[in-house]
Design a protein that fits this description.
348 residues; mainly alpha; two-stranded antiparallel sheet; 14 helices
């Protein structure tokens, strides 16, 4: 009987692995399709064949300029920040065991925005392009300080982190930081105010290869680290007592994972602006597709986040408006109703 049971479990596990990889392949195909459509979205059209020829150096000078200098950097940035924000939200939800955790909702993005605004306020004459490698570091300081404050407010000795206290503390800290930023905007020059307003709305302002190179090192280090810690996140999901009984140093691992989540979120928003809800929506959709085990969940989550931001950015460029609207607004239109839906379910 035990052999039959073990065989059934092995078959079910094998089918689950096949299913998960099929989901990943489908998401990759969708991402490639979205990439192709995005490259063809704009005033000047590029057919799939023209796109293919231009990618391999066979396009006209005009096509190469449009693709390599304007569209391709922005598309790569959209994919990178989508993956970074999604994995950051997935880590936060796993570590805190709170399905509503998200870098934007918990005030992490607000902390990064506060430091960026302080920089713009104190050094208005510095060109943003010259400071692009400094902005991720400043955003990390701001989001790190916000994360430490939220962690301290939501932690209770003997109980650990309460999901409810974490959510309320994050919302309270985000509200306080937002109020401070509104007051600071009164002292900004018109040019600085325009930049900050677009940044806060989630406009992907970093749209050349220098911004890609500024963001890429953070993701190259932190995304593999999060994947490496996937089994630890699975253990933490069992609860503090069970995880401690299995020999996991809970607080040490939690701090390391939160630091990785903060690094991913702050480096992403320093280039993309205050894009919210990606870290909330992507993990939930990925969990529905492949389940709660973090090894496949993180991969799926990164692909869903990249697809979400790339599609949202493509929509902003496709809308027949005189002025392009920020990508963050499109993401918010998708994410805000989903957040309210999850909130209503959690009340039940």
């Amino acid at each position: 009987m035990s052999n039959v049971t073990n065989g059934a479990i092995a078959k079910a596990s094998h089918r689950k692995k096949i299913h998960d990889w099929i989901v990943v392949i489908i998401l990759l195909v969708l991402l490639v399709a979205a990439f192709t459509i995005s490259a063809n979205t704009g005033t000047i059209r590029l057919s799939p064949m023209e796109l293919f020829r231009t990618l391999f150096g066979q396009g006209t000078p005009q096509q190469e300029l449009i693709l390599f200098e304007f569209r391709l950097p922005r598309m790569v940035i959209s994919i990178l920040i989508g993956a970074g924000l999604a994995v950051s939200g997935c880590i936060m939800q796993g570590v805190s065991r709170n399905s509503l955790a998200d870098p934007g909702i918990l005030g992490i993005n607000a902390g990064a925005g506060l430091m960026v605004m302080l920089f713009v306020l104190l050094f208005p004459s510095m060109q943003t392009m010259n400071s692009l490698f400094l902005l991720p570091a400043l955003a990390l300081i701001g989001s790190g300080a916000a994360a430490i404050l939220i962690y301290a407010l939501s932690y209770k000795k003997g109980e650990g982190i309460s999901p409810t206290r974490l959510l309320l503390s994050g919302i309270g800290v985000a509200a306080g930081i937002s109020a401070t930023m509104i007051i600071m905007t009164l002292k900004l020059t018109p040019e600085s105010y325009t930049f900050v307003a677009n940044w806060l709305a989630g406009s992907i302002w970093g749209s050349n290869w220098k911004f890609v190179m500024a963001l890429l090192p953070w993701l190259i280090v932190l995304l593999p680290f999060a994947y490496y810690k996937s089994n630890v996140m699975n253990v933490l999901n069992l609860g503090d007592q069970t995880a401690s009984g299995l020999g996991t140093p809970i607080e040490k691992e939690r701090i390391l994972l939160l630091a990785a989540a903060v690094g991913l979120a702050s480096s992403s928003v320093s280039v993309s602006g205050g894009i919210g809800f990606v870290g909330l929506v992507a993990p939930h959709l990925a969990r529905k597709l492949v389940g709660p085990k973090h090894k496949m969940l993180l991969v799926t989550c990164a692909l869903v986040g990249a697809l979400l931001v790339l599609v949202a950015d493509t929509i902003t460029r496709a809308l027949p408006l005189q002025k392009e609207i920020p990508t963050g607004l499109i993401v918010a239109i998708i994410g805000a109703p989903y957040f309210l839906y999850l909130l209503s379910r959690s009340k039940g």
